[in-house]
Amino acid sequence: MGKKSFMQGAVILGAAGIIIKIMGAFFRIPLGNLIGAEGMGYYQTAYPIYVLFLTLAVSGTPIAISKMVSESMAVGNYYEAHKVFRVSFILLFSIGLISSAICFFGADILVTGMGNVGAKYAMMAIAPALLFLPMAAAYRGYFQGMQDMKPTAKSQIVEQFFRVIMGLTLAYILVKYGKEYAAAGASFGATAGAVACIITIAIIYKGKKKSYSGNIENTRDQITESTKVILRRLLSIAVPVTIGAAIMPIMNTIDVTIVMRRLQSTGWSLEQANAMYGQLTGMAAPLINLPQVLTMAVAMSLVPAISSAFKKKDMEFLSYNAQLGMRTSIIIGLPCTFGLMILAEPIMILLYPMQRESAIAAAPCLFIMAIGVIFLSTFQTMTGVLQGIGKQILPVRNLFIGAVAKVVISFILIGIPGINVKGAAVGTVAAYLIATILNYLSIRKHVDIKFDFKITLLKPVYAGLVMAATTFLLFKLTVPYLGNNLATLITVLVAGIVYFIMLFATKSITTEEVLSLPKGEKIMKVVRKFKKTKNN
Q1: Looking at residue 281, what DSSP letter applies?
Q2: Each residue of 218-236: pLDDT tens digit?
Q3: H or E stretch including 61?
Q4: Taking the model in full, what pTM does it have?
């Protein structure tokens, strides 16, 4: 497994993430129109509970599995790597069985406690997905440990496809019987997707197992850790990662109370406070989450590569991967930060034409939160490095410190009338900035990585600044003639092309790195043609 594997895996997972996001948008919008506010109320009562159980089951285990599998394979112990998979599969099957049973048989109790009894059937319909997806997570972790991201990407796309098709179809068929049944049909889409997912990845596993079953048998006599030790190690890695994944959602829940109460305490009415909170979380925040799809793919692909190098004490390869991961996250995060800052208001107006006043009001929040994109991107990548070297508790601690700072800063700034809800946006940026700095210090303390700031930071920043200047000037020149929406779309397209060209002009990306990507040779052919045209 060479240097090629890390970048290929990141691209594959990133592309799959984008496809899934697009399919998700094609699910939510028609569903809302089909089942209305009442039906969405039932659906949204069941779905967060499902997400909570799923997060607890699978947010940390695939990372733990991939890390342990990559470590075993680094020393040639294929039998132990497969044993890690078997143990984790049984563990996740047990967790899935319990959580699925709670949601199915306890649906009445859960929805009654949440004050929405009409969501009972939606809860029962989505419960079986909690049995199948944890098992799929075991397969994904195993393949990721071998730095093979294609099975994960394929199974995720299949899962989302069946979720969208089955969910919308059943909602359409059942809506005539009542909104609660339509919501149950939409919820069952997740179960259909989970079944399709586990079947897909199991078939892939069966096909691929033939190619490495010989290695497994040949290393059967090697010394392997006991099932008890493997289980303990799995949990020691997965539990901190899971806690880390839950910190920001928990803090965001607390944020609701802080924002609403602080705004009202400074003179805003309940309706005004609710509208301002909606502008922050419902209109601005989703745009900030989009780049995470790509940077999370980088982090996930980085863990097994770092783990393997660390296990073999190949510090040169470890340093190479860490720096490449950091540079990749910066290259992804910078244009998003600059672009969202410069075009904050035009983008909001483009996306919410029917809510122009609210869109304009939400633009300052988007401007502020855009600054946090670059910090979130680098934080996720450095988290992958720390998880790879077995320091998975440190990112959890660092993010918790950042989250506490967010609460304090938000509380103080929201109480200032002139800042109001924008204080929560500042608090979010501060949280990621603090967590990023602490992650960087943790890496410097535990691993001797000397980051080349010229190629890792300065060159991408220069490329990003040229793109930013192009964005600002082009929009100002075109908006009087083309109008906001068309000028925004053209500006984004041209700015993307300029940034891509500048990455090569500044040598922020090397030829070898491009060739290591899927379809890398085709990309280089385009680049070479452009260079020839430019020289002529």
Answers
A1: I
A2: 887 787 788 899 999 999 9
A3: helix 61-74
A4: 0.82
